[in-house]
Amino acid sequence: MEYALRAMVFLAERPGQNHPVQAISLETQVPPDYLSKVMRDLGRAGLVRSRPGRRGGYELGRTDLAATSLLDVVSAVEPLDTVERCPLSKECHAVELCPLHRAVRSATLDFVDGLRGVTLASLVAVGASSERDPVASGGIARALALGATR
Asked: Average pLDDT for residues 102-126, to the nearest whole number?
């Protein structure tokens, strides 16, 4: 999930440009072999387009960054399932989830709503206006990568 978000933000900061996996990997600090798999999943979802060949790479599949939410990105690589019935198949929880699974379901739905409410456009806008951030010159994708390694 994290790697897909980093890659998408990287591409969103550079619309209309084609980037090889190695360049995306270097900037986002995602292992290139794993990033290739992530990019394939993002491509299947239409979020990125690949260009084969020597000068190949990836670019955004959608031009409207405001139409791409973090939920779109996460769903492409790791769909979020909500608990609808007791995973233990206990009869006592057949009608209503137990307190634990109600809490898990509620937290998952809140997380989904949070991801749905953030778009690539909003992240790129924040990154572009963040002159006080010492990492801003490297972009928000770089800041995400650095934050994960601290």
From this structure: 91
